[in-house]
Amino acid sequence: MKKNKMQIASWPDVKAVLARLDQPDLLELISDLYYLSNDNKASCIPVILSAMTSWRRIKKVIEACMHPDILNEPVRIPTGKTGDQDYSKATAM
To answer: 69 FRET partner, CA 20 to 30 A, in 2, 19, 59, 88?
Structure first.
């Protein structure tokens, strides 16, 4: 008897489907994947916490550069732009 091989979707296919999901559906999907296995839990937690920490750090850099204490620091547009680029890279798929 011949086995049917399960076809694995490519990332662009998966990305297209995910792009159409609304936030509750995405949260449900992530929850399902999280509870599916201990390996998933071990993989998800560091990635999510790392992303949150990076975004917070980048946001602070941008805010400090664009809205400094006027009496003590100048506006640092180049550094703010770098922070903005880092944020864009961190949030891009």
So the answer is: 88
Q: Report the candidate in 85, 23, 31 with the shortest Cα–Cα distance to residue 58.
A: 85
The predicted-structure confidence for 70-83, as pLDDT tens digits, reads as follows 666 666 666 666 66
Are the C-beta atoms of 77 and 65 separated by less than 8 Å? yes
For the segment 20-78, what is each residue's pLDDT rounded down to a tens digit? 999 999 999 989 988 999 888 888 777 776 776 666 777 777 777 666 666 666 666 66
Other beta carbons within 10 Å of 55: 14
Give the integer Cα–Cα distance in Å for 81 and 87. 10
Q: What is the pTM of this model?
A: 0.46
Which residues, at least 6 apart from 82, have a Cβ–Cβ distance to it below 8 Å?
Answer: 61
At 57, list the tokens. Answer: 């750090």
